[in-house]
Request: fold
Amino acid sequence: MKKVFTLLFIGASFLSFSQKKQLTLKESVTQQYRQFAADQLIMFQWIPNTSEYTFLDKYVVLKKGNAKTDKVDVLITIEELNTVLKSKLGWFSGFEWKDQFTFLVNDGTHFYSYDTKSKTGRLILEVNEEAANQSFKKNAEYLAYTIENNLEVRTAEGKTIVITNNQDPNIVSGQTYARSEFGITNGIFWSPNGNFLAFAQKDESDVHNYPLLDINETPGKLESIKYPMAGQLSEKPRIGIFNFKTKYTAFISPKGGSDNYLTNVSWTPDEKHLLIAEVSRAQNHMWLNLYDSESGNFIKTLFEERNDKWIEPEHPAFFPSDASSNFVWISERDGFNNLYYYDITGKLIKQLTANKFVTKEIVTAINKGKEIVFCTTGENPTNNLYYAVSLEGKQRILTKTEGTHHIEISSDAKWIFDEYSNHSTPSKSLLLDASGTEKKTLLTSENKLADYSLGTTEIKVIKGKDGSDLYTRLIKPSNFDPSKKYPVLVYVYGGPHAQMITNSWLDGANLWMHWMAEQGYLIFTLDNRGSGERGFAFESGIHRQLGTIEMEDQMTGVEYLKSLAFVDGNRLAVHGWSFGGFMTTSLMLRQAETFKVGVAGGPVTDWKFYEAMYGERYMDKPEENIEGYKQSSLLTHAGKLKGDLLLIHGTSDDVVVMQHNFALVKKFVELGIQMDFFPYPMHKHNVGGKDRVHLMEKVLNYVMENNK
Reply:
């Protein structure tokens, strides 16, 4: 064990516990991001080409400040804005500065601009409520949106341009594909000046229809979704390019096979070319291809990447300068996401960073494109920091306080707004100069939980069996007594791209965990191998054997817990959702002597039932990894159950479909093994809204009642 350190949550208080309020479970579930949320400068934005900035006060008052002074004024209220615009906006939704004097707002169907100099405004355009996936191009005043499976554009003149008009509902345009894998968050890609519109299109004709039951009608009605499971036929993608001048749409299809993935679409600044990453269905080979925007013709492959486990490009090419087609690419080829600077012919100009920590994303370019600002963990993987690197490879840190940061940089890059939290700081809002030196504190949030009885949170690093550093979080009650023996609830996720323990306020924990601690529990979490922000080696050991090394690390955590004199090793419970539900049930079955109680929400129970894009990356196709699928399947190990297990599922889950839990329950029935099952009718992959209180009561009561 090394790098062991203890952090105390909330801080010491001389008030007796009797003077403190007791947090209710309902408060902990519903108020973490409301009543107990730290104060922040909501929607902070720099006004272009000035040292002035704006932020929202309670979402309905727009305030303006200046980095050079301490003066803050009210610019306009939502009531005043509605009077000018003759609108009915409830708040400054969709707020964005267009230029030094003009900002934009919208309610999803009405798009407005307001001139702060003349104090006048106008309705730019409007669409009906069926419009979805809206993407507004502010310099052209065009709005792209989808109507069912088709794509349209509305202009400021009130004209509707129909981009696609497919009568076949299996042909879907302008929406995400690959079920939002590979960093795909939208299906609409405006060119820099708005002369072209690229869009994703998918042919789902070969994808199975998966039925979900709508019980709100009489009789119940089946609603079908497209859900390609591992090894099955998947959607066929292509990229369309609509030319507003010629009204011609060119289409780009995968070069290596119709079921390859097309990802990370980006435009060159001159609008002449598109860069698209094509990934093989096996997800072990990537080609970065260059296409002509007028014709859609393939020009060349700029470079390729291969890996015997997986290739997962998640970021489009970034162009530092509008005057050049040189671009920066984020690649994990050396084990960590780093920045590589290329020219448009595919020649590597320079590897800009060679960090042994993860780059998360590129934020912007500053100093006339000579420096790239990017988000990263830095040396401590629980942090979220910002660095800058020059095109010569000289790197510097902008956010120097450890923690979880968010920044906004002024147009001239002379000022940086930095808002962060960490273990001991609920939230702090600062102005930094270009070097990252603190110049002014704009807001320091009070601790909204100071009047409540909450215990301590300890963050430690323990050694895994393979020598890896494993981060752990242990929450203790406020009246913790080291001479007593405490039961433990292990909260687990453990899957790719997720990180449960962060250097932020509450350390990444949910507030219900602190409520549970006050009931006399210890709450323990460990980020095992396979989880995010640790680099390829740490994350990729799970390949073809999901659950195996993750459980090994979780059991290392159990060994650590049992080494603590105040832990009752005979009263261990485990809970998790989604991949965490898979981990919970895996531990209850494959480590049956360890855990007395488990509650698994929305669990994957057999990876052959899961979606192709995610499942095949980590497990390959079922026919290619027969033994791996067998060993990771919870149905294989169902007969080993000894403790009390509660399975929970939303009946309209379109991510981990109900077939997972139904198949496992059926297996338990066949084996004559009793367990518990609870559905949440009409909820999707998680249970939200007011029903989440019911969920957490169900989960935590089950643990406490069965872990005596």
Observations:
- The radius of gyration is 26 Å.
- Confidence is low (pLDDT under 50) at residues 1-17.
